[in-house]
Amino acid sequence: MSIEPIYGLVLAGGASKRMQRDKAALKYRGRTQLDLAFEVLSRHLQRVFVSVRADQTSDPARAHLPMIVDSVQGTGPIVGIRSAFAAHPQVPWFVLACDLPFFSDALIHPLVGRRGTYGFATSLATAYKSAHDGLPEPLCAIWEPSAAPALAEYQAAGGHCPRKFLIRYGAHLVDLPDPRALDNVNTPEEYSQAAAALDNSAPMQLKIQYYALMREQAGRSEETVETSATTPADLYTELAARYGFTLSREQLKVAVNSEFSDWSRRLAANDAVVFIPPVAGG
User: Would you list the domain boundaries of the chain?
Assistant: First the structure.
């Protein structure tokens, strides 16, 4: 189910100097990092684009995806964000770096929900708080249209760091559900470690129970599934796509091994998961 009217922007215009190869084309489980990021955002947002430099438009890792080509002078993420606002100035943008291999569906709704709670007009952005230093994570954040003129002014004065921009101008900060979720990959060594960690997340069996409307839509009351989902949030996204569940996560509670659970909890093999709709209690 798309969230309107937020658009998604995957930043893929970097030079990847430390990696010594194109980070957008790095593969995890046989899929490029860029494709994986694009697909996660596309499951939740109305439209998604890839931010690229002019000389990247024919690159095989990018050419098959809808692009926003840098249209302002300069380098770095702020150029990509400003170019997105230039292309579609009236919508907020969920901005995501393409080098976050542990990013998942579970990170979408906490930002969107907190943005709505606070009232989006009161801040230039809603961002996760870094698990490492407590500072804003600008490249997994929702940027409001009101940020566009401030970004232009900041860049004109010589500023280029989006994190420093959010520190100066302020942002609504949201606690990160999984401390590792926004760890980025900049070097060959970090890529090897991330790939090994993800490859070790082999498909596992989980026991699922359905009640009320979900039982009707799934056509069963329980089943054992084999999945690579690592959290209840990811698992529900997978099952909703399979069975066409019409209830949103916000309408449900989830229990793991007979205890109510957070949606970002790490699942283990043979866990028993129950998705509980409103009429089923809770």
Answer: 4-194, 204-276
Q: Give the separation between CA 255 and CA 281, rounded to whole angstroms.
A: 12
CATH code of the region 4-194: 3.90.550.10
- Each residue of 171-184: pLDDT tens digit? 999 998 888 889 88
Preceding omega of 188 cis (within 30 degrees of 0): no
Decide: residue 199, CB within 10 A, 0-12 exposed, 13-18 middle, 19+ buried. exposed
Reply yes or no on domain 204-276 having CATH 3.30.565.10. no
Alpha carbon 279 to its chain's center: 30
Q: Where are the alpha helices (DSSP H) in the chain?
A: 33-42, 77-87, 108-118, 147-156, 162-169, 188-199, 212-218, 232-243
State CA 25 to chain mean position distance: 18
Q: Are 34 and 24 in contact (CB under 8 A)?
A: yes
Residues 235 and 273 sit within 8 Å (Cβ to Cβ): yes
What are the beta bridge partners of residue 51?
11, 68
CA distances, 82 to each of 79, 211, 215 (Å)? 5, 46, 46
Look at strands 93-97 and 3-11 and give their pairing.
Answer: parallel
Q: What is the pTM of this model?
A: 0.73
Name the residue among 177, 161, 162, 165 with its Cα closest to residue 230.
177
Cβ–Cβ < 8 Å for 180, 140: no
Read off the pLDDT of residues 7-41 as tens digits, 9 standing for 90 and up. 999 999 876 677 778 888 888 878 899 999 999 99
